[in-house]
Structures are given as structure tokens and as C-alpha cells.
Write a structure and sequence with these properties.
- Helix 5 packs parallel to helix 7 and helix 6 packs antiparallel against helix 7.
- This protein has a single domain, classed as Acetylglutamate kinase-like (Carbamate kinase), CATH 3.40.1160.
- It has a 9-stranded mixed β-sheet with strand order 4-3-5-2-1-6-10-11-9, with helices on both faces.
- Helix 1 links the parallel strand 1 and strand 2.
- With 247 residues, it is an alpha/beta fold.
Length: 247
């Protein structure tokens, strides 16, 4: 097992971050499930910032396997659908843990619902201690409560562990006035306030997550994770993607 080293030379801008990954980011070219080469790519990207000595926590979604909201729309009882979505995030967390440990990064999965044989229960002090010891901590099962998204879980966990920023990895290179994949003339925001995100109805994170970050002055960086090296650029404070904070 490789011990995390302190970086030489210029210090990164952030020392403790929370990385928010969508379940879809693990699909690669598949239409469903987990593509092993894509999970390995994500692990290598995490390795690039782990080698800087940064303390890393990760929250991962489950939309590549099951999304609770979609299940409820199709007639399933919402709470049941959300619990199924939480289990999907556990599957993704275990897949990412496996990929990280294959490249010698010590990792712990903590679940908000009890799954003794698979993951530790979420305990804030234990999570912080893991980070201090150079372990990557993956938070699974959202908040453990139905009706809350993994975006809200990311905001909550980031504040609980004292993260300096949420790094939200997406398929586009920031926040736009409209979906740039369907609206080529959409305007990109380099920096935007929490309140403007809410007022403009921009689909960055759900309103509960944005409000939590705003109330606690926790910044968010939104960037394209598919471009190799972007995670490292983000933690080094380079101008990529969109920064959400106070103006």
C-alpha cells in the first residue's frame, strides 16, 4: 500500500475536497451499468490529486443503475424507489473502491444505511480520521433518507467533514444558461452566485443542495470530468469550468 505523500513545490489550492460523481459518469459508452475501463479512468484521475497530498471524499450517484425519481414516476412508491436508488449508489461505490485499491489507494466506503458486510456505517469522526490518515472516503447511500438526492448528500457530507469545496464532475465544462448539447448558443458562466443559480433555475444541483451550500458559504466548482487532467487543474485552482459562490 502506497502511503500518501505531501507534494513538493507549489501547494494545491485546496487541502480537503468532496468530489461529486454522477452514476452516469461510470457508464462510459454503455447505456446502462458500469464500464470497467471508465471506472479505471476515474480512479486514475483521483490518483492524480491523491498524489498532491489532498484529502479526498467522494459522493457518487446511482443513476446508471436505478434512479428513484424515475421509478416513482413510473408508479413505484417514492420512498421504496429512493431506497433502491441508495442501493445503486452502494454498488457504484464498491466498484470505485475496487478500482482505487487496484492502484494502491487506501479507500473506505461509508454507507448511510447499515450494510455491515459491505461498508462501514457513516460516522463523521471516523470519516474525518480516515481522511487525516490519507484514505479516500466514499460516501454511499445518499443521506439514508428518501426524498433527498445525492447532490444534497454531497453538500451535507462536505459540510460535516469540513471540506473546502465541492468539485462537481459533469459531462460539460461548466454551467450554461441552457443545455449546451442542445442549445449551441447557450452562454457559459465563469462565476455565478448561489442565488442566481436558484433564480435562473439552472440545473447544477437541486435547490436543497444549493441552499445548504449558500447558507454555509461552501463553494462549488462544476467542470468536465471527461477531459483528462481536469480534476487536478480544479484542485490547483486553475480557471476551468464554473465557480459557484458569493459574488
Amino acid at each position: 500500500m502506497v502511503k500518501q505523500q505531501k507534494p513538493k513545490g507549489k501547494e494545491p489550492k485546496y487541502k480537503r475536497i468532496l468530489l461529486k460523481l454522477s452514476g452516469e459518469s461510470l457508464m462510459g459508452k454503455l447505456s446502462y451499468g458500469i464500464e470497467s475501463s471508465t471506472v479505471d479512468y476515474m480512479a486514475r484521475e483521483v490518483r492524480s490529486i491523491y498524489d498532491l497530498g489532498i484529502q479526498i471524499a467522494i459522493v457518487i450517484g446511482g443513476g446508471n443503475i436505478f434512479r428513484g425519481v424515475e421509478g416513482s414516476v413510473k408508479g413505484m412508491e417514492r420512498a421504496t424507489a429512493d431506497y433502491m436508488g441508495m442501493l445503486a449508489t452502494v454498488i457504484n461505490a464498491l466498484a470505485l473502491q475496487n478500482a482505487l485499491e487496484k492502484i494502491d489507494i487506501p479507500t473506505r466506503v461509508q454507507s448511510a444505511i447499515e450494510l455491515r458486510e459491505l461498508a462501514e456505517p457513516y460516522i463523521r469522526r471516523r470519516a474525518v480520521r480516515h481522511l487525516e490518515k490519507g484514505r479516500v472516503v466514499i460516501f454511499a447511500a445518499g443521506t439514508g433518507n428518501p426524498y433527498f438526492t445525492t447532490d444534497t448528500a454531497a453538500s451535507l457530507r462536505a459540510m460535516e467533514i469540513g471540506a473546502e469545496i465541492i468539485m462537481k464532475a459533469t459531462r460539460v465544462d461548466g454551467i450554461y444558461s441552457a443545455d449546451p448539447l442542445t442549445h449551441p448558443d447557450a452562454k457559459k458562466f465563469r462565476r455565478i452566485s448561489y442565488i442566481d443559480v436558484l433564480k435562473k433555475g439552472l440545473h447544477v444541483m437541486d435547490s436543497t443542495a444549493i441552499s445548504l451550500c449558500m447558507d454555509n458559504s461552501l463553494p462549488i466548482m462544476v467542470f468536465n470530468v471527461k477531459k483528462r487532467g481536469n480534476i487536478r487543474k480544479a484542485v490547483e485552482g486553475k480557471s476551468i469550468g464554473t465557480f459557484v459562490g458569493t459574488k
